Amino acid sequence: MRKTQRCAVAVLPVLALALAACSGGGGGGSEAAAATDFSGAPSGTMNGWAFDNADDVGTARMDYAAGQLDDVTIDLDQTAFDSQKFTTRIAGGDVPDVVQMDRRFVTTYAAQDLILPLDECFAAHDVDPDTRWYPFVVDDVRYEDKVWAVPQFYQPPAILLNKEVMDAAGVTDDQIDTSDPDTLLAAVTAMYKESSGVPTTLGFDPVATGQAGLWVLATGGRLTDDEGKPTLDDPANEAGLDLLKQITDAQGGFAKVKSFTDSFDTFGEENQFVADQVGAQVNAQWYPNVLSPYLDSVQLAAVPFRGADGEPFSVASGSAFVIPAGAKNPDAACAWAVELTAADAWTAAADARKATLEENGGLNTGLFTGSPEADQAIRDGYVVPTGNAGFDQVVSTYYEVLDYGQTFGSSPAGQEIESELNNAVTATLLGDKSAAEALSDAQEAAQRAYETVVGGR
Amino acid sequence: MVQLGAEPTPVARVDAPQARRRTGRRFDRREAVAGYLFISPWIVGFLVFTAGAMIYSLVISFSHYNLATNTARAAGTSNYSQLIEDPRVATALGNTLFYALLAVPLEIAFALFLATLLNGVGRGAGAFRTLFYLPKMTPVVATAAIFFLLLNGNSGAINQFLRAFGIEGPQWLVDPMWIKPSIVLMQLWAVSGTMVIFLAALKNVPRELYEVASIDGAGPVRRFVSITLPMISSATFFNVIVLTIAAFQIFDSAYLLFWRDQSNSSPEASLFYAVYLFQQAFRQFNFGFAAAMAWLLFVIIMAVTFVQMRFGSRLVYYEGDR
Fold this sequence. Notes:
The complex is a heterodimer of chains A (457) and B (322). With 457 residues, chain A is an alpha/beta fold. Chain A is 46% helix and 12% strand. In chain A, strands 2-1-3-13-6 form a 5-stranded mixed β-sheet. A 3-stranded antiparallel β-sheet of chain A has the order 10-7-11. A two-stranded antiparallel ribbon of chain A has the order 4-5. In chain A, α2 (56-68) crosses α14. Helix content of chain B is 71%, strand content 2%. The relative contact order of chain B is 0.11. Chain B has 322 residues and is an all-alpha fold. In chain B, strands 1-2 form a two-stranded antiparallel ribbon.
């Protein structure tokens, strides 16, 4: 190799590194906009991201908010939120002013200083978070005594009942009681049907991995401590997993239950209630909307999910608006997010939903906004008897459980805690590990994630 | 009369070749510069997006990178020691290695089988080739959605088919023992890229060899083993290396089937190395550790490829070799 070639080989990596470093973006939050107390008059262009699939409710609220901010040009990117994209956008300095994301992501980003605390935003707009939203909704986005997002929606879970399946098996509503495992298991077994070892009707679909947090918290467990550290190996968490295992084992085992539920036509005409594939199922508040066109084919009822003390219990996530560190127009972003969650915005949304239902048909099950004032106003003004007593009882049940809401707990490792809990549930229900072993492994991984996030500040 | 210039001086005779060499060197240099200029877009792209990114990731792997401030503080070798301390790394590596050992031979065998079938087709060969190549053109997301239905343990078409023969199929996507085979099945669906390389190699095997072997009494199996396999060994070797590297980097199939969201059931058996790397980087913002993971994978792939090159090349027949 000649001298010049050797030199070139030596210089190339340095040049490559220099070029790569130069293209390294805008420096994330370090180039954040000047500190703001959010009290400036909203103006200029506001860039929002992750407003995908806005339905009539979303569109009406956005129209309302735009109408309140005449001096602001709103430019929305209507693609879905993606954590990788968010990360790279911040690293590249391409920071939107406001982002819509699931509440479980919020504290992770807060702990990384990737988003701004919004206490001053609320103060500037005379909003008291603890009265505008349910306390358990605000607690989802509260970390280190600061509120990091403008929350929206709280769609609680309850247990939807398929009365045809229940009546055929001689099971009554009061037997679907998650606080009384023996009675529940007897009812589940009575309704369960199989053909050649394959389930054809589940007595009760507990939605084990999708609602793992609900089962653990309702049976007396806890996912995080007050500081947000994971507590998955708390022995109190085992009760929820053990009960789930009993329920799935009584119906052919988790593998068969999972494969069966994966095959449900959840949003279609042959959904699991129409096809009598479930006697009871844990569902969030929005699912009765899916079933409302099929009320001629199904007889529905609902019971609350009950905690170990026998009282109704609900826990649910929702979405929220955050303002990233480095946002160029945080004042407008704050004002816009606050307007979107104002009572009048929800009224506009309720009007839009009413118009949609009048045009397309369907029943009004209300909107579960995350805000007690808006929820009550919409229930009083828009939710009327449907003529189907069972469906009206379903709607009432979801409103009833609102008063028993709890937060999952706000943690910098929230996503990992949820993911690890699901892994623990899967391992336990498959029989790979005992609940204690699975939760211990999950705790180890979640703790590592927690320390990574907190230690990286 | 003196004829000036008719008889070149000795000095002039000596200078002429040197001048030609100098002119030649200048021409060579100009040609080289022009060549480099022509390929400079690729060079710049390579430096920035490949070499630069690799070196940058090596730097990051020795640091704790903070996304909020775009700063990195020195971490020494702690990210690399964490590779040993974190049990999930060993789990992910074990899963990936097992998958590679299962997937590569099956992909080679299936691709060769398809290529052999296609090679025997006379009329309509083009249509068949297009048909066989279509799965490669299908987006992975669509393929995953189809396989999610096909592999359902209760109602999936594969188990329905097995049930017709009295066989109770496994719970492909739930039972940890069958998760890796289910992903291998999904990969086999898109094996047509490998198949095309085999097909090209099969087309290059001289027909005379088969004719002579047939005259000598060799049957189809003997001809395949003694003629086809040796003659396409270079293509096989290439495919083995490429598929091994791809197997170590398996990500999209596993991610789509098992890790697409937190509420999904994600058995530990589906945690592949690239999936865990992605989680570390983009869910936990542990970029230093993720970079160290990437470099470990790079070293492993390099080592495996080196071993394959060192020992595998002995079994390969190259037409130009003696």
